[in-house]
Amino acid sequence: MIRVVLPAHLRKLARVDGEVEVEVSGVVTTRAVVDALEARFPALLGTIRDHATQKRRPFVRFFACEQDLSHESLDTPLPEAIAKGTEPFLIVGAMAGG
Amino acid sequence: MSGVRVLVGTRKGAFVLTADGKRDKWDVSGPHFGGWEIYHLKGSPVDPDRLYASQCTSWFGQVVHRSDDGGKTWETVGNQFTYAGVPGTHQWYDGTPHPWEFARVWHLEPSLTDRDTVYAGVEDAAIFRSTDGGQSWSELPGLREHGSGPFWQPGAGGMCLHTILLDPSNPERMFIAISAAGAFRTDDGGKSWKPINRGLKSEGIPDPNAEVGHCVHRIAMHPSRPNVLYMQKHWDVMRSENAGDSREDVSGNLPSDFGFPIDVHAHEPSTVYVVPIKSDSEHYPPDGKLRVYRSRSGGNEWEPLTKGLPQRDCYVNVLRDAMAVDSLDSCGIYFGTTGGQVYASADAGDSWNPIVRDLPAVLSVEVQTLP
């Protein structure tokens, strides 16, 4: 299972507390994790990536294992610790004031 | 005893204010969706417990919520607003072509006859319709594809479709307004649209009498006289007697004819309310006095309504969707400010009281009159 940490606003939207877990079959990539997340929590559709372009929203960041993976290809395999579930995949609302 | 439910959208959440018909004691519920901008909430005229809410942030985009119990609980519905076909370009602030990009829903207008049908006015300007309670949305592209679309340009707040009026006497007729394109009308249920800006004059655009390009801030009608349209434009308060085919300036003795909201008394079709604002660069009331102005003659002659409103050192604004009226026997008027106050008058504007004073900046106010 892949462990995912959502920002507070998205936790509220998904109606969850704390970390969530999603199952990914095959290679564990950012795209696969977000696909699985949206399938389990349809309320998150369109909030992490744009409906039309499927691009990450500008103020959303993807962190894992103390690395910022936001600008990596969505299809790049995530670190092994994410795939094994020993580290969580972090979806973060960028610090941009407000 | 009948009552009212006031739906308030703010920069940081939604609030639901309820009172009985006396409208002197209020229950405040919220914030709902805390931390999110709530541009607009509105209830279905068919089923008052069916509410729709537009929720967004710069971080996570647009979300639409629906309630079936008058705002006690909410469920997330569809948020996919995809323009029909290849959307093309409109003008950017600097006059260069800019692709149409969905930003947010400014206004939700539930159908007069079906609780599951609701219209959405969005930025970049377009109108969408859902017939399944907000789960899915389809654009009515005839508006955006009106020949003038490539020449539309955003106002300071974005190129938003902010007003949708449904004609209760003619289900095929709707009116919408866009900043800064102007007002449009459909007479065929949204298939085709025509600009209804004749008679408007706007300094600051190359042709002050242009067919489109006017910064219309708000339009309003009384359901018993749907051919009479009142308009608060960037500057000027206007009235049309023929569904927008022509207009006349009815700003009369207002201290400033700049402002955002305009609304009509529930039982007196010629009684109109505006909130004058000093200027387009000074978005606060003239002289630091928060005054609603009322005309009982469809414009031209206006009287200030000040009792209970701050008459010194007041520098808030009242945004375009932040005024509404109830339909109790003694018509109630409500408005919210960028300072977080929501004021109510239970006597058609003669006197005012704050329901709440310290909400986040108020973006929208709607009222439901409950049985």
Description:
The complex is a heterodimer of chains A (98) and B (371). Chain A is an alpha+beta fold and 98 residues long. Chain A has one domain: Beta-grasp domain (Ubiquitin-like (UB roll), Roll). Helices cover 23% and strands 19% of the residues of chain A. Chain A is built from 3 helices and 5 strands; from the N terminus they run βαβαββαβ. The radius of gyration of chain A is 12 Å and the shape is globular. Chain B has strands at residues 3-10, 13-20, 27-32, 37-43, 51-57, 61-67, 75-77, 89-91, 97-99, 104-110, 118-123, 126-130, 138-139, 160-166, 174-179, 182-186, 194-195, 216-222, 225-233, 237-240, 248-249, 258-264, 272-277, 292-295, 303-305, 323-325, 333-336, 342-345, 353-356, 362-370. The mean pLDDT of chain B is 96.
Characteristics of this structure?
heterodimer; A: 98 residues; alpha+beta; Ubiquitin-like (UB roll); five-stranded mixed beta sheet; globular; B: 371 residues; mainly beta; four-stranded antiparallel beta sheet; 0% helix; 43% strand
Distance between the termini of chain A: 34 Å
Report the structural category of chain B.
Answer: mainly beta
Q: Report Rg of chain A.
A: 12 Å
Strand content of chain A: 15-25%
Structural class of chain A: alpha+beta
Name the quaternary structure: heterodimer
Number of domains of chain A: 1
Known CATH architecture of chain A:
Roll
**N-to-C CA distance of chain B:** 7 Å
Order of adjacent strands in the largest pleated sheet of chain A: 2-1-5-3-4
How many strands in all of chain B?
A: 30
Q: Nearest-angstrom radius of gyration of chain B?
A: 19 Å
CATH class of chain A: Alpha Beta
Mean pLDDT of chain B: 96
Overall geometric form of chain A: globular
